[in-house]
Design goal:
The chain is 71% helix and 0% strand. With 205 residues, it is mainly α.
């Protein structure tokens, strides 16, 4: 006997089954609505504007969100100043916005600020500050930051050259599936010839 026929002979079961289905459907719609709100939040709206080249509106939105100290919005304001998108390019101002975001724990801003200290763009050249902010970012699982620390140890930039420490950090980045780190390990282990991939630049650029 098919399930539908069986339920037809047991009305109370059918009623209960329908009630359960209604409850499950309501729960699903609530979860879907919540997931949609997470995916479609204002930061994501700003990112979509950036992707579409609508820089003026993206900058306006991120500035509005930055007023409430949203860490990722603060980062994006800095990024737009760094790129000169929707606003006149100013790396010094970009560094200030990155710092505000980094201070609130945004790992991408921490990475970006470290890169600026490493290269001396927008801030004074300071390897110690670069390592500090790379370390903060890597501690949150940022693979780009871990890779750059490893490369600094491999090259002896701001630290005493230490291949053991360098490989450890590059392995950490590789474990996070960073392609450059996996390529670098192949070079370090003698599996391929060539040089190590260069430093990772600011993400999202």
């Amino acid at each position: 006997m098919e399930t539908s026929q069986l339920l037809g002979k047991l009305p109370h079961v059918e009623i209960r089954a329908k009630a359960v289905l209604r409850t499950l459907l309501a729960a699903f719609l609530m979860i879907a609505a919540h997931a949609g709100s997470v995916r479609g939040g204002p930061i994501e709206d700003g990112e979509a504007m950036l992707g579409a080249g609508d820089y003026a509106n993206a900058f306006s939105l991120f500035m509005e969100l930055a007023g409430s100290r949203d860490p990722r919005a603060l980062f994006y304001v800095g990024l737009m100043y760094q790129r000169g998108e929707g606003v006149a390019r100013d790396v010094n101002v970009a560094a200030k916005w990155f710092r505000r975001s980094a201070d609130q724990g945004d790992d991408v801003a921490q990475f970006s600020l470290a890169r600026m200290y490493q290269s001396g763009v927008g801030v004074p050249h300071a390897y110690s500050e670069a390592l500090k902010w790379y370390g903060a970012s890597a501690g949150q699982g940022n693979a780009d930051a871990a890779y750059n620390i490893g490369l600094m140890y491999e090259r002896g930039e701001g630290v005493i050259r230490d291949h053991v420490a360098g490989r450890w950090w590059i392995q950490k980045a590789a474990d996070l599936r960073l392609a450059d780190a996996m390529s670098a390990l192949a070079v370090l282990d003698g599996m391929t010839s060539g040089t190590l991939p260069d430093y990772r630049s600011t993400p999202l650029t």
